[in-house]
Each structure stands twice: as C-alpha cells, then as structure tokens.
# Entry
Amino acid sequence: MTRTPPTPRRALITGGASGFGLGVARALLDQGASVAIGDLHAGRLREAAQALAAGEQLLPLALDVTAPDSVRAAVSACETAFGGLDTLVNSAGVIRITALDDISEQEWDWVVGVDLKGVFLCSQAAAPLLRQSGRGRIVNLSSDAGKVGFPNIAPYVAAKHGVIGLTKSLAAELAPFKVTVNCICPVGTPETTMGQDVLRMKVSSTGASAEQLMAATAANVPLGRSGTVEDVVHAVMFLLSDEATFLTGGTIDVDGGLINTAPIRGTAG
Ligand SMILES: NC(=O)c1ccc[n+]([C@@H]2O[C@H](COP(=O)([O-])OP(=O)(O)OC[C@H]3O[C@@H](n4cnc5c(N)ncnc54)[C@H](O)[C@@H]3O)[C@@H](O)[C@H]2O)c1
# Structure
C-alpha cells in the first residue's frame, strides 16, 4: 500500500529549547513542519536554534508560559509566520525536590504555575487556531508523577495529576472541532536538563553517586532501563500522526512498565 506523505504540521512547542520539546521539534522539522520553539531560557533558545539550523521552518520565541501576554504574543507570532497553527506540544516544565515542611508558597506557585497553569494558558490561547485548522492536536507532557505519588515533590505531583485532568476536560470540549488532546507520562530520564537537575538534587540529598542513582532507577523499571528522549519523541510523534485521529483524552505511559505493573519484581505472584 502506498502512503501519502503527511501534510506538514504548524506547531508551537513550549519548553522547546531543551529535552523532550527539543527532540519533538527536531522530529517535526524532519517531516517538513513549521515549528515554533518557545522557551523562557534565552541562552538555551539560542543554542537550540543554532543546533536545529532549520532556516524559515523554525521560529524561536521568547516565551513565559505563566504570563498570559507572553503566551498570546507567541500564538500570534505563529499565526503571522505560519498562517495558522494545528499543533501545540506543552513541554515546558520545572521541578524542585523539597520536603513538605519546607515547601514555600512561592515554590508551590512557581511549580504549579509552570507545570499546570502554563498548560491551561497555552491551550486556551492556541484553541481558536487549532479549531480553525480542522486537524488540531494538543499533546501535554505529564509524568509518571501524574499517576502516582512520590515523596518530596508534592507541587510537581499535584500539577502533573492536574495535567491529566485538564487533558480529559479539553479533549471533551474540543472534540466537536476535531481537535484531539492527549498526554504522555514519561518515567524520569537523565538525558534532559530537568533530568540532570533532578539527578544533582538527589546526589546532594542522598550522598549516593549519580551512577548509583541511575543504576537503581533503571533496575526499578520492569523493562530494565531508563527512559530516553527518543522514547518520548516516538510517542508524541505517533499522537501527531495521521494514524492517531481517533485517540483523544488519553495518556500514554512511556515508562517501561513502571506504573502499570506490580512493584515486587521477579516473583510469580
Ligand atoms: N526529564 C524527566 O525525567 C521527565 C519525566 C517525566 C516528565 N517530564 C516532563 O516533560 C516535560 C519536559 O521535560 P524535560 O525533561 O524535557 O525538561 P527540560 O528542562 O529539558 O526542558 C524544559 C524546558 O522548559 C523551559 N521552561 C521552564 N519554565 C518555563 C516557562 N515559564 N516558560 C517557558 N518555558 C519554560 C526550560 O527553560 C526548559 O528549556 C516537562 O513538563 C517535565 O515535567 C520530564
């Protein structure tokens, strides 16, 4: 069977200067898409634009997902540059490891602001263009921490659970306009900026080496290894493909079986 090549997408990727967002940007550009990468970190954005070297296909944008004006300006820049928008990947995210007693109100507001409110603001601002496109897609980056609780990251766990709820609500509301909204729940990976930050925080709080911590994490995953950026990019690209038109409101757990299998490994029941 011969396949018609997919119509190139017009995408905005928040947090697109690093990690999963950058990986998705690269994969979309390879398909001929027009891609805006929006990020708060100016230096990272510059480096990403240089590394991607995609000419007019690429639009690097200064973006703060917590600031409505900044979000509206980014969506409007996409409309001007691409003539519309059919894809939003919400990948901007932050995390801090802090025990309950020490979480300040400021830290709570920051983490929940970027990780949950940011997804809401970007989805709301992009929705008119996504509806107009007749083939709109939103993919949100939640986490394994959006499915179960972990100690010392309460705001992150709360925000990532919220992203799954928001995904379901937006899926219901936007379905009449053929906009699908789905969510990816990756397991932690040391390959991204956030993954490296988490590793550093754990090294300083436990005294274990980075190598010991990475080995322990991999051993805990039923499929026996840590996740990679590529694992997540494959799942996002599937949700953006023409093969995924009938999927909405769902989550894909890219975690080697961590969340959906029993925690006692190597026993028969
Ligand atoms: N790396 C992991 O282990 C892991 C696991 C599960 C889920 N996730 C989620 O995946 C997403 C991407 O994570 P990553 O590992 O690629 O992280 P990353 O740190 O490599 O990339 C996130 C990007 O978001 C940007 N950002 C932060 N605050 C922002 C703001 N206010 N406005 C715009 N951009 C902002 C950062 O500058 C950074 O470039 C996040 O939502 C994260 O919570 C990551």
Observations:
- The chain has a mean pLDDT of 95.
- The pocket of nicotinamide-adenine-dinucleotide is lined by residues 14-15, 17-21, 39-41, 44, 63-66, 91-94, 114, 118, 141, 143, 186, 188-189, 192-195 (CB under 6 Å).
- The chain has two domains: 10-187+227-254, 190-226.
- Residues 84 and 129 are 6 Å apart (CA to CA).
